[in-house]
Amino acid sequence: MENxxxxxxxxxxxxxPIRREAINVGVVFHCPSRNWSEFCPIKNxxxxxxxxxxxxxxYIDMMFDSFDYEFNSHIIDEYPERFNRIENxxxxxxxIKFYVNEFRFLPVESIHTNDSEFWNDIRDVERTFLxxxxxxxxRISSRDVRELLRKNLAxxxxxxxxxxxxxxxxxxxxxxxxxxxEKNVFKAISFDKQKxxxxxxxxxxxxxxILTNREKLNSYKINLIVDNSIILNKKLGNNSDVFxxxxxKITKEAENVKIYTxxxxxxxxxxxxx
Length: 274
What we know:
By secondary structure, the chain is of the alpha+beta class. It folds into 2 domains: 4-140, no CATH class; 159-271. Helices cover 38% and strands 20% of the residues. The chain has helices at 46-51, 57-71, 91-96, 118-129, 142-155, 196-212, 214-217, 228-232, 238-253, 262-271; strands at residues 4-13, 23-31, 36-41, 103-105, 109-113, 162-163, 179-181, 184-188, 221-226, 257-261. Strands 1, 2, 3, 4 and 5 form a 5-stranded antiparallel sheet that branches. The protein has a 5-stranded mixed sheet with strand order 6-7-8-9-10, sandwiched between helices.
């Protein structure tokens, strides 16, 4: 089955340029070979209200309508010329560069997809960057994140550089990390959020595996990817406390460890900034 390119750009809202705090509010997709583009906004705007003390519903709705008009290629009206260059690879890049104030886009990124995976890949990108807009049952899993990263790296013609680092758990033959790219190793941490005991056990194992292999790992950057909610959701109670204790311990004892949420990881994936 023939592969083709799917481009996307994440839309962020930054109400205060001094604080420079931003929230992901949408993703624009563009498929040159299909002459197609579409804006996918967040649907749950309650997070926007809590993020911005001066939330202006009319202004936000107006901007979202303008993104629909600008990027939804299925909307046919008396001004179709805005899509004259939609088959061009730079269509998305050229059309997002004008947004530099409260609404701005992260750099355009691409993955390779095919007819059978097209909508699944779009859904995975949405679930990565618009994480809280989805019901818990539809949120992206650790396995999905690993697969999305592999596809992203493959688009940069470095698929053959994605390898496995031969560092194994002391008990059993399971590998400690999911994969390696250059001098970066990656591990996605998954757990049942309802069971703080399970999370504690999972993190103890991760901590033990890293610290017992410290000498082998000294020259690597260790990237741990966790569920967004474990850091950002204060309602998780004991789970949050357990995670914060783990974070403090592992980053203190192993300075080459970095911990990212899924959305932070996705943004770094775009810029290859690990």
